[in-house]
Amino acid sequence: MSFRRALALAACGLAGGSVLFSAVAVGKQPGRGGDAEPRPGSAAPATAVTPASAAPPGLLLLPPAAASCPPAPGWIERPAGTGSYWDSNWDRREPLALINLKKKNEETGEEELASRLDHCKAKATRHIFLIRHSQYNLDGRADKDRTLTPLGREQAELTGRRLASLGLKFDQIIHSSMTRATETTEIISKHLPGVKKISTDLLREGAPIEPDPPVSHWKPEAVYYEDGARIEAAFRNFIHRADAKQEEDSYEIFVCHANVIRYIVCRALQFPPEGWLRMSLNNGSITHLVIRPNGRVALRTLGDTGFMPPDKITRT
Question: Hey, how many other C-beta atoms are within 10 angstroms of the C-beta on 47?
Answer without folding.
Answer: 15
